[in-house]
């Protein structure tokens, strides 16, 4: 076999391999199949945060979230993960007189840009509206973090040194994550850890419930109170509402 | 069109390509040959002490060869559809307390890495359990 | 004009040293990637606020180079004119290698490299540019291979058809790559001009690359080169692409600064940090305006030395531009509360910093090492390099001493 034939055959092999690798496009299994009788259908989880009841020095929700979900903390703001965190905002050109404290977390948007851009559908929206990461499938490309306009997503740059809640898995390094509305607790009929902690701390600033249920507290508040969402003009349709923003 | 005559298949080129291919294929060859060289390393030969604390969710034969399918289906059900049943790692641990005598036995024998336990809690042994205990803080 | 192609001898010290060095770089890069795979990406300079860094910037740079050089090479096929023929094969081969370099850069950047060989092929999300693009990239590689094959076989009509497909597909690939950033609701990313400006910059970097590669290869291996070809590449192609890129950058930035809602971000991009220095000096000044002037002024625009210098400036400029696509949009915080100043309590909510870590540099060197090595080997094994390229019968030009370090003398006599 002379050089020319060899090169031809190598070229065909390369082209063939690339072609074969595109075959799964035809047989791809997407993860969007949901069975009709899934326990999630019909619900639409949402949260209202009443900023007037949120006390600036309290960290109950953040601590509870970290212990419940094994969220990584390294003491380094480059890599620390905060599924829920506090920021202080004040009007520009003021002297910090009207400083307000706001809790930021994943908004579980109805049009989540993060789920739109995940190449393997590891980040997806469950039937009950919760945006979750399947850590078995995540390849760690971090495109979801790029796409989230709220900067609410984080990446495990390091191994998590702690495991406070052994009943819940922790994430190894190399995958992205964000708040899950404590989906594992919701599936068992409990409230998210932050909501429970805030109530136990006596503030009750986090109100959580089913937006599809007209009798729930969140539905009432969204319908009657002057709630706002962060940057509604982005069209992401977040499901975290703020009272007093 | 005349091509230059330093041919593609000179002796040197052939030797180089052969060495390259051998190096690339060496790990695969090793994993093929290792079970033959190491006695008792096929899943059929590994003996796992079965606890007598009741029945497993599936029979032994199925579990031995298809537990990964079961785990995968359960995983999709739980994560994507919120259907939580009775198949959990915690459930396995109720009977098979430490994975040193359970999962690791077969997996070490066939040198197949398990990705699960960097994230899911399942101590290898009593010592491992103590070590992991130290990684939790009160709360 | 008849063009003969031949493998290079590849026995000179320069060739062997270069190839050996490239292999070493490749090994260093593999080692750096392995370290990150085992110990986590904290070994890079990336953080939660800046999740993409040097590797992604280099990846889009390489992909740009790839399409650019492929389009330039495709012009040979489309117009079928002999003056483009001499560098068509090298251009196609380099295009394929640079795309592979882009893919390698992205690969080394993933959090779970062990999964990225399987999951993206079994799970798709047709809404995601990261899922669509690999299809475009694989197609691109297949077409490069097909194009190379058509060139080797000297099939005239097939070459014409494939080169047309090549040009169109390259534009598609680049639009897709630009869309990775443009189709995302981040203030400094979201822009309809980004995909076309990405294509324009890709074309300039590709043309510049072609100039550099051909000057080095021709002069360095003692093959004679008709200056007209390089002048054409420089003044007719590169200069035009530069102006188009400048135009798009102008519109994009004026637009951002004009509208109130994006003014703060636009001003931050132009004047707010180290990246602004890269923008004004690296991209606009030395990367676009200076080369454009050099190319248009007759005296410098017809001299091989000056054209080569301009091409180098353009390559550096486009590298700055790729960096500027990725980083400023990440270090600038999103405007969550318009009109309000945000102070973080546990995280930095303001402008972040990103510095490149040593291991990231090693990874980049590794990728360059791998494809450089493949290029060197390809030159020796396949008839890629033209023996000569001139329109008329002429005496071979004198080789330059510096460039003669690379490659050896052609083994065939230099006359047709």
Helix percent of chain C reads: 55-70%
Counted beta strands of chain B: 0
**CATH C-level label of the domain at 45-335 in chain C:** Mainly Alpha
What is the rounded distance between the termini of chain B?
78 Å
Classify the oligomer: heterotrimer
Question: Are there runs of chain C of 5+ residues with pLDDT below 50, and where?
Answer: 391-416
Q: How many structurally independent domains of chain B?
A: 1
C-alpha geometry of chain C: globular
Spatial shape of chain B: elongated
Q: Kindly provide the radius of gyration of chain C, computed on alpha-carbon positions and rounded to a whole number of angstroms.
A: 22 Å
Q: What is the total tally of β strands of chain C? A: 3
Mean pLDDT of chain B: 79
The description of the largest β-sheet of chain C is: 2 strands, antiparallel
Largest interface: A-C, 70 and 65 residues
H/E element string of chain C? EHHHHHHHHHHHHHEHE
Gist of the model:
The complex is a heterotrimer of chains A (245), B (139) and C (416). Chain A is an alpha+beta fold and 245 residues long. Helix content of chain A is 26%, strand content 17%.
Description:
The complex is a heterotrimer of chains A (245), B (139) and C (416). Helix content of chain A is 26%, strand content 17%. Chain A has helices at residues 3-22, 24-27, 60-69, 113-117, 143-147, 183-186, 193-200, 217-224, and strands spanning 45-50, 84-91, 100-105, 123-125, 131-133, 154-155, 176-177, 206-210, 227-228, 240-243. Chain B is built from 5 helices and no strands. Residues 1-6 of chain B have low confidence and may be disordered. Chain C has helices spanning 13-39, 54-79, 88-108, 113-116, 119-122, 129-153, 156-182, 194-220, 227-258, 260-271, 274-296, 298-301, 304-331, 358-381; strands spanning 5-6, 340-344, 385-386. The chains are: A alpha+beta (245), B mainly alpha (139), C mainly alpha (416). At the A-C interface, helix 1, strand 2, helix 4, helix 5 and strand 6 of A face helix 5, helix 6 and strand 2 of C. Strand 2 of chain A pairs antiparallel with strand 2 (340-344) of chain C.
């Amino acid at each position: 076999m002379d050089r020319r034939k060899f090169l031809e055959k190598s070229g065909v092999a390369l082209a063939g391999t690339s072609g074969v690798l595109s075959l799964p496009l035809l047989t791809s299994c997407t993860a969007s199949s949901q069975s009709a009788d899934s326990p999630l259908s019909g619900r639409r989880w949402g949260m209202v945060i009443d900023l007037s009841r949120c006390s600036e020095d309290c960290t109950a929700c953040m601590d509870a979230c970290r212990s419940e979900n094994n969220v990584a903390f390294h003491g380094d703001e480059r890599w620390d993960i905060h599924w829920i965190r506090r920021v202080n905002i004040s009007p520009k050109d003021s002297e910090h007189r009207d400083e307000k404290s706001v809790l930021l977390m994943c908004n579980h948007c109805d049009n989540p840009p993060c789920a739109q851009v995940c190449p393997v559908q590891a980040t997806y929206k469950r039937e009950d509206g919760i945006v979750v990461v399947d850590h078995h499938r995540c390849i760690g490309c971090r495109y979801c973090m790029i796409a989230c306009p709220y900067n609410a997503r984080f990446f495990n740059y390091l191994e998590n040194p702690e495991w406070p809640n052994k009943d819940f898995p922790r994430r190894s390094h190399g995958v992205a994550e964000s708040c899950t509305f404590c989906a594992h607790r919701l599936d068992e009929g409990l409230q998210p850890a932050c909501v429970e902690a805030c109530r136990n701390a006596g503030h009750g600033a986090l109100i959580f419930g089913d937006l599809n249920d007209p009798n729930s507290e969140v539905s009432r508040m969204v319908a009657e109170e002057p709630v706002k969402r962060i940057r509604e003009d982005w069209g992401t349709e977040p499901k975290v509402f703020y009272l007093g923003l | 069109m005349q091509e230059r005559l330093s041919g593609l298949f000179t002796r040197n080129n052939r030797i180089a390509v052969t060495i390259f291919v051998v190096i690339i294929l060496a790990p695969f060859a090793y994993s093929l040959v290792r079970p033959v060289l190491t006695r008792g390393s096929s899943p059929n030969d590994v003996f796992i002490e079965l606890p007598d604390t009741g029945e497993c969710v599936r029979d032994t034969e199925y579990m031995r060869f298809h537990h990964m399918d079961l785990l995968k289906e359960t995983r999709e059900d739980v994560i994507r559809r919120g259907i939580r049943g009775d198949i959990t790692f915690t459930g396995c641990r109720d009977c098979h307390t430490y994975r040193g005598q359970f999962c690791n036995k077969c997996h070490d024998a066939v040198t197949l890495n398990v990705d699960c336990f960097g994230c899911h809690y399942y101590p290898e042994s009593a010592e491992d359990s103590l070590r992991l205990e130290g990684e939790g803080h009160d709360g | 004009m008849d063009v003969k192609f031949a493998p290079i001898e590849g026995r000179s010290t320069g060739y062997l040293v270069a190839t050996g060095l490239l292999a070493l770089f490749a090994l260093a890069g593999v080692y750096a990637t392995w370290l990150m795979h085992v110990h986590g990406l904290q070994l890079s300079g990336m953080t939660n606020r800046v999740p993409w860094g040097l590797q992604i910037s280099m990846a889009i740079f390489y992909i740009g180079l790839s399409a650019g050089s492929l389009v330039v090479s495709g012009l040979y096929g489309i117009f079928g004119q002999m003056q483009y023929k001499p560098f068509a094969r090298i251009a196609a081969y380099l295009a394929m290698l640079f795309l592979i370099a882009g893919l390698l850069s992205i690969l080394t950047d993933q959090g779970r490299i062990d999964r990225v060989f399987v999951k993206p092929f079994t799970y798709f999300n047709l809404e995601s540019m990261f899922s669509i693009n690999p299809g475009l990239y694989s197609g691109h590689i297949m077409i490069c291979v097909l194009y190379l094959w058509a060139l080797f076989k000297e099939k005239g009509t097939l070459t014409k058809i494939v080169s047309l497909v090549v040009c169109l597909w390259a534009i598609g690939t680049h639009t897709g790559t630009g869309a990775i950033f443009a189709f995302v609701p981040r203030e400094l990313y979201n822009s309809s001009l980004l995909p076309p400006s990405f294509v324009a910059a890709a074309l300039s970097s590709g043309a510049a690359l072609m100039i550099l590669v051909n000057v080095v290869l021709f002069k360095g291996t003692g093959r004679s080169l008709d200056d007209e070809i390089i002048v054409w590449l420089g003044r007719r192609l590169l200069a035009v692409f530069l102006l188009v890129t400048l135009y798009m950058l102008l519109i994009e930035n004026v637009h951002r600064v004009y509208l109130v809602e994006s003014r703060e971000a636009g001003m931050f991009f132009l004047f707010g940090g180290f990246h602004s220095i890269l923008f004004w000096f690296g991209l606009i000044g030395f990367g676009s305006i200076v080369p454009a002037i050099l190319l248009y002024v007759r005296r410098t625009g017809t001299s091989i030395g000056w054209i080569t210098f301009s091409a180098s400036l353009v390559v550096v400029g486009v590298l700055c531009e790729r960096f500027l696509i990725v980083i400023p949009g990440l270090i600038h915080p999103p405007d969550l509360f318009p009109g309000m100043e945000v102070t973080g309590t546990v995280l930095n909510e303001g402008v972040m910093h990103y510095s490149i870590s040593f291991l990231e540099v090693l990874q980049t060197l590794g990728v360059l090492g791998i494809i450089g090595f493949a290029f060197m080997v390809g030159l020796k094994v396949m008839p890629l390099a033209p023996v000569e390229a001139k329109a008329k019968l002429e005496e071979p030009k004198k080789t330059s001493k510096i460039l003669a370090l690379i490659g050896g003398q052609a083994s065939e006599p230099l006359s047709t």
